Amino acid sequence: MSVVDQPVPSGSRPEATVAGQQSGGAPLPLTTLSTRSASRPARQQRQIAGVRREDVLALTGAAASALATTGLLWMVAPFTGIVGFIVVSWCLFVLIYAVLIGFDNNRPTVRDRISAAVVHSLAVVVILVLALIVIYTIFRGAKALAHLNFYTQDMHKTTPLSGLTSGGILYAIVGTLIEVGIAMAIAVPLGLLAAVFLNEVPGRLNRLVRTVVDAMTALPDILAGLFIYATLILIFGLGLCGLAAACALAVTVISIICRAAYVVLRLVPGGLTEASYALGSGHWRTVWHVTLPTARSGLATAVILGAARAIGETSPVLLTAGATFYFNFNPASGPMMSLPLAAYTLVQNPEPNYIARGFGAAVVLLVLVLVLFGIARMIGGRGAGQLTSRQLARRMAASRRDVHRYTGRTVAGQLAASAGGGQADDYGGASA
After folding, report:
1. End-to-end CA distance of the chain
2. Considering only 32-41, 219-228, 232-241, which range has the smallest mean pLDDT?
3. In this structure, is residue 391 part of a structural domain?
4. Does position 216 have pLDDT exceeding 70, yes or no?
5. 331, 308 in Cβ contact below 8 A?
6. Are 139 and 261 within one domain?
7. Closest listed residue to residue 301, CA positions, set 333, 331, 264, 335
8. 277 phi, psi to nearest 5 deg
9. What is the residue range of 272's domain?
10. How far apart are CA 168 and CA 429, in angstroms?
11. Are 334 and 324 in contact, with CB atoms under 8 Å apart?
12. Total-model pTM
C-alpha cells in the first residue's frame, strides 16, 4: 500500500479512520492508495552474441532451401550461368532465413539476425575471392618458383623456347628495390612534413593543402606517370630510366603517407602537448620531442603502407622506366624493370614458360607486399605512446641516469653551501 500523509478536512475523513482514532488504537494514515498491478511483463534480454542451436538450424535450413529452390528454377526455367545461380540462391537464402527466424523472434531481433547474415555472407565472398586469386597465382607460377635460377638470373640470354632452368627475375627485384628506395626517400620527408603542417598549422593554406592531398589520394596512378613523362622526360630530356619511375611513384605515394600520418598525429593525446606547453616548451620543440615520438609507431605504419603501394604500381613505371631484360644498377640511365612490369610483360608472351615466369614474378611481388603489410600490422598494433619492452628499458635507464645526475648536483650544492656558510636550494645551488 502507498501512503500519502496529507491533511484532510474533518468532514471528508473516512469513518474507519475516525473510528480507529476514537478507539484508542494506532492512528491510521490519512489517505491510502491501492497498489498498482504490473501492466507489462518483465522484458527478456535479447542475446546478441554467441551461436545458438536455433540459429544454426535456421541458417542450414535456409541455405538448403535456397539451393534446392534455385536448382528447381534452373531446371524448369530457361536460366543459365553460375553467377546468376549464386546471386539468386543468396537472395532466396536471405528471404527464407528472415521468414524462419521471424516465427520465434521479435522485429529488432529479426533485423539484427538478417544484418549479421548479410554482412558475414559478403565477408565470406570477399575472402573466397581473395583466396582464389592467391591460389591461382601460386598454382600458375609454381613451375618457375621451384628453380633456383629464377631468383639469381636475368632474362637477356633466355629465348621464348628456353626451359625454366634458364632465366630469372633478379633484375626485376633489383629494379623494384632501387625505384622504391628512391621514391620513399622523396615521399617520406614530404609526406610527413605535410602531415605535421596539417596537424599543427591552421588557416587558409591548411585548407588548401588538405584539399590538394585529398585530390591526390583519388588521383589515378597513370596520371602521375604522365606528369613525370611530360616534365622530366619530354621537357628536361631525362629519358626512360629508374629515376623517372621513382619520381612517378613518389608522386603517387606522397598523399598516401600524408593522409595516414595525419590521422595518426590527430590521435596523440592532447594532455601530452598541454603538459609540454605548461613546462615552458615551445610549439615546434613540443612537436619534435612529444608529438612525433608519441606517434612513432603510427608514422612507421604510414611509411610502410606507402612502400607497399609503391611496390605494386605498374602503369607509372611502364610510362617512365621502359622495359628491359638486362640488369641495370644505374637509375639515372637506361630502362629499368620492376616486378609488376616484369609480370605484365612476361604474361603477354604466348609461350607457357614465359607465362609461368610472369606468374612467378607476381607471387614474389605478392610475398613482398604481404611482408610489408605484416610489418605494418606489428608496428601499428600499439597505441599512441605505448612502448615496447626494449623502449621501456631504455626509458627506465635514462630515468635512473637523470636521478643519479640530480642527486649528484644536490650533494655538490650542499657541500658548497656548507663550505661557504650558505644554504643549498632545491636545485643544488647555494644561497646566502
Report:
1. 80
2. 32-41
3. no
4. yes
5. no
6. no
7. 264
8. -65, -40
9. 170-385
10. 72
11. yes
12. 0.68
